[in-house]
C-alpha cells in the first residue's frame, strides 16, 4: 500500500482581512515566510499572541492567505494552558466553539468563537482517493510512528478536493506521542 506523508500541524491562526487590519494596521497583508504542503497555503511572517482566561501563548503564526472566517487551531495541551475547552473539530466547523483574544502589533480582537483542536485528517485529490479506495468524509485508521513509538491513529477523516496535496495532518501532541519527525509516513489500515 502506498505511504502517506504525515505532517505535524503546530498551533496557528487563520484570520479574515478585516481582523488582520485591526491586529496589524490598515492595509496590512500577510507576507510569506514559508510555503506549506497544501497548494497556495503559507506560513506568514506575522505572529500574534492568543490570550485565554488562564494564560497566553505568544508568537503564534498566522497562516495565509486570509480566510472567510477566523479560527485558532491549538493542541489539547495548548487548550489547557490557555484555559479553554476547545473541542476536536474539522477545520471550518467552529459553531459553538470557545472564543479567545488575539493581540497583534496594532490592536486586539476578542473572537466570540473559533478555537478548535483540529481533527486529524488526510488531504487527498480525487485521483488519490480513487487510488486508496476511499471517499470524502470517510473515517479510517492510519498506522505510523517513529522508531520505538509506533501508533495507530483512529478516527482520521478523509478530505478530498481537487486543489489538495496528499498529506496527513496531526497536531503536536499526536506527533510527539508517535515520535513523528520530519520524514514520518503512514499507511491506511482497512
Describe the protein's architecture and organization.
The protein has four helices and 15 strands. The model has no long low-confidence stretch (mean pLDDT 96). It has 190 residues and is mainly β. Strand 12 and strand 13 (151-160) form a beta hairpin. It starts with a strand and ends with a strand. A six-stranded mixed beta barrel has the order 1-14-11-13-12-15. It has helices spanning 17-24, 76-82, 126-132, 172-177, and strands spanning 4-9, 12-14, 32-35, 42-51, 56-64, 71-73, 88-89, 100-103, 108-111, 115-118, 121-124, 139-144, 151-160, 167-171, 185-189.
Which class of secondary structure composition applies to the elements?
mainly beta
What proportion of the residues form beta strands (DSSP E)? 35-45%
Q: Report the radius of gyration as a whole number of Å.
A: 17 Å
What's the order of the H and E elements?
A: EEHEEEEHEEEEEHEEEHE
Mean pLDDT: 96
Number of helical regions: 4
- Give start-end ranges of low-pLDDT stretches: none
| Integer tally of domains | 2
Helix content: 10-25%
What does the largest sheet look like?
6 strands, mixed, barrel
Shape: globular
Terminus-to-terminus distance = 11 Å
Query: What's the total count of β strands?
Result: 15
Q: What strand line-up does the widest sheet have?
A: 1-14-11-13-12-15
Amino acid at each position: 500500500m502506498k505511504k502517506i506523508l504525515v505532517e505535524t500541524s503546530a498551533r496557528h491562526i487563520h484570520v479574515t482581512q478585516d481582523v488582520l487590519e485591526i491586529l496589524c494596521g490598515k492595509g496590512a497583508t500577510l507576507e510569506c515566510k514559508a510555503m506549506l504542503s497544501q497548494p497556495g497555503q503559507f506560513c506568514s511572517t506575522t505572529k500574534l499572541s492568543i490570550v485565554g482566561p488562564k494564560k497566553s501563548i505568544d508568537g503564534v503564526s498566522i497562516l495565509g492567505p486570509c480566510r472567510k472566517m477566523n479560527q485558532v487551531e491549538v493542541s489539547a495541551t495548548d487548550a489547557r494552558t490557555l484555559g479553554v475547552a476547545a473541542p476536536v473539530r474539522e477545520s471550518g466547523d467552529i459553531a459553538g466553539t470557545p472564543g479567545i483574544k488575539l493581540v497583534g502589533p496594532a490592536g486586539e480582537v476578542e473572537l466570540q468563537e473559533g478555537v478548535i483542536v483540529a481533527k486529524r485528517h488526510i488531504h487527498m485529490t480525487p485521483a488519490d482517493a480513487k487510488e486508496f479506495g476511499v471517499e470524502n468524509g470517510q473515517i479510517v485508521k492510519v498506522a505510523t510512528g517513529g522508531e520505538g513509538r509506533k501508533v495507530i491513529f483512529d478516527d482520521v477523516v478523509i478530505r478530498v478536493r481537487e486543489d489538495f496535496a496528499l498529506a496527513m495532518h496531526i497536531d503536536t501532541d499526536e506527533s510527539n506521542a508517535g515520535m513523528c519527525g520530519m520524514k514520518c509516513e503512514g499507511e491506511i489500515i482497512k
